[in-house]
TrEMBL record:
InterPro entries in the record: ATPase_NBD (IPR043129), Gcp-like_dom (IPR000905), KAE1/TsaD (IPR017861), Peptidase_M22_CS (IPR017860), TsaD (IPR022450)
Gene coding for it: tsaD
Organism per entry: Ferriphaselus amnicola
SUPFAM superfamilies in alphabetical order: Actin-like ATPase domain (SSF53067)
Name used for this protein in its record: tRNA N6-adenosine threonylcarbamoyltransferase
PROSITE patterns: GLYCOPROTEASE
């Protein structure tokens, strides 16, 4: 019997995400608490503070989500929690709450791979892509191109050799004095920038493979910030150049992956997928090349509980849940 109503719990980093997914009625409700404001004064996520805040937020958010969906705790058929990768203390909060609830309700629990959540999140949208497709996974920790042939059938085609695209956004933003998380702020500042004043390197653009490298870009931004008086316009111009460089590489490699595999559908997942320049350039390329690009809704691009409930629900259709309620998180997980 496939569990119908699945509660999803995401707590791998600095967002507490909770959602209810029903196998037939789809996403019923979801709620999110983001800790960004709390971490911003430290310029990055403080793991200990993150764990403590998940402890504070998770149960009230679960209650809120149940109320939104007009459900009771006892209606739950299964629980999916993020097993990794992520911050160990933060993961432990979601895992222990998920397993404790599972134990109390005597229902199965399943640990979900956070990146599988991101990867499958575009399937929550309508219209959704069909297998097989290429996924560009661009988050704060990962930049990967993947061929997706089905649930659990993923082939890594290429990935970053150093910094992730989100990291490149965040580190460039920090060099320009923007607050954490810098990606969206850098994008806003870039909108005021003058195109073409600065030209930054496009790392590995012509490497002939699907690998990425972004650490050189950060160094190039650092050099620019040292060479110039950082008035408002100059900061915006540098932001413009940084965003243009990151986006051009992402678009070019994603198109290359489609060309190599002959596939026609591209799915964008992860926080950087919220970037408007990336979206507009991919959409322009899609029209030119007769391909289709799919994005998760903006709220499901960054970390959220819906993607975990959803990935858990899909996994529960084809695999046995874990046995017992001993949880083992995987802070590092390929
Ligand atoms: O997927 P995500 O929420 O968390 C991870 O699992 O890493 O991605 C967060 C990353 C951060 O680096 C953030 O700066 C970036 O996504 N990001 C953006 C935008 N929104 C979020 N980067 C560029 N433009 C955006 N609009
Ligand atoms: Zn994520």
């Amino acid at each position: 019997l496939i569990p119908q109503l699945v509660l999803g719990i995401e707590s791998s980093c600095d967002e507490t995400g909770i959602a209810l997914y029903h196998q037939e009625r789809r996403l019923l409700a979801h709620a999110l608490f983001t800790q960004a404001a709390m971490h911003s004064e430290y310029g990055g996520v403080v793991p200990e503070l993150a764990s403590r805040d998940h402890v504070r937020r998770a149960l009230p958010l679960i209650r809120q989500t149940l109320e939104q969906a007009d459900c009771q705790l006892t209606d739950l058929d299964a629980i999916a929690y993020t097993r990794g990768p992520g911050l160990s203390g933060a993961l432990l909060v979601g895992a222990s709450i998920g397993c404790a609830l599972g134990y109390a309700l005597d229902i199965p629990v399943i640990g979900v791979h956070h990146l599988e959540g991101h990867l499958l999140s575009p399937l929550l949208a309508d219209p959704a892509p069909e297998f097989p497709f290429i996924a560009l996974l661009v988050s704060g920790g990962h930049t990967q191109l993947m061929r997706v042939d089905g649930i659990g059938q993923y082939t890594l085609l290429g990935e970053t050799l150093d910094d992730a695209a989100g990291e490149a956004f965040d580190k460039s933003a920090k060099l320009l004095g923007l607050s954490y998380p810098g990606g969206p702020e850098l994008a806003n500042l870039a909108a005021l920038g003058m195109p073409g004043r600065f030209k930054l390197p496009r790392p590995m653009l012509h490497s002939g493979d699907l690998e990425f490298s972004f650490s050189g870009l950060k160094t190039a931004v650092l050099t620019l910030t040292k060479q110039h008086e950082l008035d408002e316009q100059t900061r915006a111009d540098i932001a413009h150049a940084a965003q243009a460089a990151i986006v051009e590489v992402l678009v070019s490699k994603a198109l290359f992956a489609l060309k190599q595999t002959g596939l026609k559908q591209l799915v964008i997942a992860g926080g950087v997928g919220a970037n408007q320049l990336l979206r507009s350039q991919l959409n322009a390329a899609a029209t030119r090349k007769g391909i289709q690009v799919f994005y998760p809704a903006l709220e499901f691009c960054t970390d959220n509980g819906a993607m975990i409930a959803f990935a858990g629900a899909l996994r529960l259709r084809q695999q046995e849940p874990q046995v017992g309620y001993a949880f083992d998180i995987k802070p590092r997980w390929d």
